[in-house]
Amino acid sequence: MFTHQVTEEISLKLIGQKDAEELFELVNASRENLREWLPWVDSMTDAEQYGPIIEAWLQQFAEEDGFQAGILYNGKLAGMAGFHLVNYSNRQTSIGYWLAEAYQGKGIMTAVVRALLDYAFEEYDCHRVEIKCGTDNVKSRAIPERLGFMEEGVIRDGEFLYDHFHDLILYSMLDEDWQKHKETVK
To answer: Which phi and psi angles does 162 have, rounded to 5°?
Structure first.
């Protein structure tokens, strides 16, 4: 099973069927916090519902079309992060992520996205990586802003959340920008 050490405390691992209950419990414990920005939270009402989703995630990894990985913090599942799909002909992908409320504010997601950027540019040979965040999602927006992404603009009514549309901000990072950014923070 794929694992990737990010820092001494943080690692990424592919989620398997045996992780469904732990994943459900993590989402359930942060349900109110997560549902503010994630449109799928209310539809996940028991661990068995993750079975087909986990299969799709494993298939995505097997087909080298990105991956969805569990974020482990000191060995405990803390959230998820990964690539939505890889567009090899245009050499680009996008990153999505969420972190349970109890693990926020520890620098976990910044470290994870930094590692995902390295992976995208080195392993997938991407030229461009995007992140989309709700315009009012200050915590999520802080990640690409902290890592030097360029804010490209607002996607009006870019996502439907339960009973309303909301705007998204589109951020991008190009390979050459990431290489320069990494040099300045060494």
So the answer is: 60, -65
Residue with tokens 């409320």: 101
pLDDT of residue 185: 65
Alpha-carbon gap, residue 30 to 16, rounded angstroms: 21
Q: Of 39, 40, 13, whose CA–CA distance to 24 is shortest?
A: 40
* β-sheet bridge partners, residue 96: 82
Share of the chain above pLDDT 90, in %: 80
Superfamily the domain 3-184 falls into: Gcn5-related N-acetyltransferase (GNAT) (3.40.630.30)
| Alpha-carbon distances of 97 from 132, 143, 157, 184, rounded to whole Å | 10, 10, 20, 25
Residue extents of the structural domains in the chain: 3-184
Output DSSP code: residue 135: T
Model confidence pLDDT, tens digit, residues 117-156 = 999 999 999 999 999 999 999 999 999 999 999 999 999 9
Record the tokens describing residue 140, joined without a space. 């999520």
Residues 6+ apart with CB under 8 A from 140: 37, 97, 133, 134
